[in-house]
Write a structure and sequence with these properties.
two-stranded antiparallel ribbon; seven-stranded mixed sheet; homodimer; alpha/beta; Rossmann fold; 11 strands; 315 residues; globular
Chain lengths: 315, 315
């Protein structure tokens, strides 16, 4: 197997693009594709102050690496969810990265804020831990970003994440979930702009990029995500991709191009009105935001107002 | 595991309906569901003369069995495609069924018509064998049905067939393929009405019905279908169904309910005009129909006009 561009020994075969590439040309290929996404969708530019959500996994560290290499003004943000072994091991990977590549990474420590980790919280308030995790991550990243003057929040969602979300939405006919831009979510009052620069790279491509760059990351998936339906959608798509390489990419592109079609699907679109949480002042659709409701149930909603930043430190 | 209806030992668990049933109640459950489909979509009634496409497999023999049991006027039609071992073994199963249940089954023998089987034809005319098989089956069944005074053609397509077709259409964004009725295709000039009474039964349910009724059928899939993408879509859906029972059924129902949405997706809908083949007189979208084009390439298009019925006999 030879590199299509230089004829040297190829390191990786990309069946979805019908090419094999050597290490150097593969890394270049990935970076070019990310640049193209950033430019095509006007995700951000050189004067933006970019906060990158990092988990210690391959996607978010690859994103931080690429953006730093391209010369963007980036800072990482890690949330330690208090998952035994896993959370500290992930934080360790973030610290190694921060030192090796000289990128500041901030940490919000859930346990020191709420007294307990995400799993205990989910048990206490009787909600699925993935949903609790999502609420906390979205809230904390957004609030930190806005209050610290960042202009955009970037996440490492890859093509597998996006295609499996779309597949789930189609199979359950929640197709109004597909009517929005998936790659860029514009800023609103009290909500930071959100972007996903890796949306057109498969999980395999991102893993290849991280490994060939020698970036140390946490291999394990979150222990609570094992039974998640999103994982099953990903496995199903991988089965199809194996038979028909390029399916994920074609599917996701069509979903984006046809978002107007999904708008038409809503006979009575639920236009939820933006409100601001009476406790913390941040965006919500009800009187109180989900984060404050969790805090209230755990009897520590005062902390949300007063001590939010006490639990954030730099690695 | 006990039958939900009578408390006896259950024979089968239907996770998609969240019930377990004994043999008797399971067979009743399946038959009721088919009755419901026939009535809800007005597929046919007691005065119809129904031609059932049979392959010797579980779906088509189950369909023939159910319709015969319900008192409909049914006749089977089998096409021997000349696939070594497989075709004769399948025909044998049809013959056994025909004798055991006293249902007439007619046979069209491809090899005696064209001189060669479907695989050799596909090699000779350089087309995929599944596509050649489809052209031949559709043509022969339709022509025999119309010329012999049948009023409807019923096929054994099950929920797995329909859901995987829909999944493939969505993934490849061929969504205009979903704008038609999938369960009933009305008759047109020179085209028999086509119906699929098993559309809401999973492959597993149909297999259960066939086995518990002691119907002998051919277990193997067609040897040429192994690499088919439809098989991969089915495996992918089974993976998801295993995690979230009922997904296939919900998905397919939504596809049917929302067919208007897929119509909207066509900015320039290709309204193909019906024509009639200048050779045989049957429906086509070009000057000559696909069946006659195959016959022409094999230098036997005269046969289509003159000797079509010579190759059909009753089992």
């Amino acid at each position: 197997m030879k590199c299509k561009l230089c004829g040297e020994v190829a390191q990786i075969e990309l069946r979805n693009h019908n090419i094999s590439l050597c290490k150097g040309h593969f890394l270049e290929f990935i970076e070019k594709r990310v640049t193209k996404t950033i430019e095509k969708y006007s995700l951000f530019n050189i004067i933006d102050k970019i906060l990158v959500a990092v988990s210690g996994g391959k996607d978010s560290l690859a994103l931080l690496h690429i953006l730093k290499k391209m010369g963007f003004n980036v800072t990482g943000f890690y949330i330690n969810l208090g998952i035994p072994v896993y959370s500290d091991a992930s934080q360790e990977k973030c610290m190694i990265f921060s030192k090796k590549y000289d990128v500041p990474i901030y940490v919000f420590d859930l346990k020191s804020f709420f007294g307990i980790g995400v799993f205990e919280i989910s048990k206490k308030i009787r909600r699925n831990s993935c949903s609790v995790c999502g609420i906390i991550k979205r809230y904390v990243m957004n609030r930190f970003g806005l209050e610290e003057g960042y202009t955009v929040l970037a996440t490492g969602h890859n093509l597998d994440d996006e295609a499996s979300f779309a597949l789930g939405s189609v199979l359950n006919f929640d197709i109004q979930r597909l009517d929005k831009d998936r790659i860029i979510l514009p800023s609103k009052d009290k909500a930071l702009k959100k972007v996903k620069p890796l949306s057109f790279l498969t999980e395999k491509e991102v893993a290849g990029y991280t490994i060939l760059n020698g970036i140390d990351y946490i291999y394990d998936e979150c222990p609570y995500s094992k039974g998640a339906t999103s994982m099953v959608y990903k496995r199903a798509l991988n089965l199809i991709e194996e038979r028909s390489p390029g399916t994920k990419l074609r599917f996701f592109k069509k979903i984006i191009e046809n978002k107007e079609l999904f708008k038409k699907s809503q006979e009575n679109p639920l236009e939820e009105e933006n409100q601001f949480c009476i406790n913390c002042g941040y965006l919500t659709y009800r009187e109180k935001c989900n984060f404050c409701l969790i805090a209230e149930k755990l009897l520590c909603d005062n902390k949300v107002r007063c001590n939010f930043f006490d639990n954030i430190f730099q690695l």
